[in-house]
Amino acid sequence: MVVDGIEIRDFAPDDAAAVRALFIRVNRLLAPADMRDAFEGYIVRSLTEEIDRIADYYGERNGGFWVVAAGADIIGMFGLEPAGDAAMELRRMYVDPDARRRGIARRMLDFAEQECRRRSRFRMDLSTSALQREALALYRSSGYELVREEIADTASNKTLGGGIRRYHFTKAL
Known about the structure:
Structural class: alpha+beta
Largest sheet: 8 strands, mixed
CATH class: Alpha Beta
């Protein structure tokens, strides 16, 4: 469905290059100057393990991945993967910096919550870092409960590591 010229739709193979570029752009913008090398390593790992194989990655996990399109341009993306029997985990929710402050992230979050309900998963879990202040504000204002904070020391395709503070949230749907 297209609303205000914006459409949230399933990821398609033709979206791969735009999703890759958005992932790289957002993560490079997040990188503090003293952590640029660590972010580049995280980007490479995430591309290899997940972003460059989105259909397989989310398919193997019985999840899903969506893009936000404004005409031919991909301006947002997000994924869901199961987190136990009753929940889904929100992953890779990014909005193009040039398209922010238009309610797109909130629409993506609402869509993800509806998708969880559709799949009979009545809880959504997510995490974000201290570097993503706007995301923290969105999740808090959307009724997400902070369940724990941690200092992420170990890198994976889900976190940079490097001592960045991570916040884990949940919401009953």
